[in-house]
Amino acid sequence: MAGQSRKATLQDIADIVGMSRMSISRILNGKQQTSPEMDERIREAIVSTGYRMNRAASALRQGRALPTVGLVVERFTDTSCSAIAEAAADVADERGAVLVVVRERPGGGVEALVSRNVDGILVCDRDETAEAWNVDRPVVAVGGGAGALPQELGVAARAATAHLFELIDGAAAEISGEGAARDTV
Q1: 6-9 contacts, C-beta under 8 A, 24 or more apart
Q2: CB-neighbour burial class of residue 179 (10 A; exposed 0-12, middle 13-18, buried 19+)
Q3: CA of 45: how far to CAs of 16, 30, 107, in Å?
Q4: Exposure check for the chain: N or C terminus, fewer CB within 10 A?
């Protein structure tokens, strides 16, 4: 494609600082120590090249999957849903997961996430229970009803997202064929 430059690689960093690509990888992953001067040279090389670590590739090399969870919201401007999304994003970040947010729409937000093969789904929900969706992965509905404060929703969403990850981990550990877990928080 015209005008696009290639992405910087570990080899680019290694070439700049005069080390092997494997050494740079071990250093960046905290598996190898180096001098403060070399740490600074590596940081400068990263900044100058614009290098960005590819978490998905790293996870695959380590034999693990990068978990992906989805969140269905009614409207992006809804203060309840935005408080829930913020808290869910925090928990996903802490776990090294990706959060995909979609709007509820005709044909369904849950179905859109299932078609993208997310590992679990949060639903910013007011009136329905999670049993409303018949899908083959964990679904957790979170909401505080009318009048809930954003702080309360944030606490509830953090708990719901942590619970969703427990359900995902349980589903991965024990594939029972009995359907997915559905909960409401």
Answers
A1: 7/50, 7/51, 7/52, 8/49, 8/50, 8/51, 8/52, 9/51
A2: exposed
A3: 7, 17, 47
A4: N
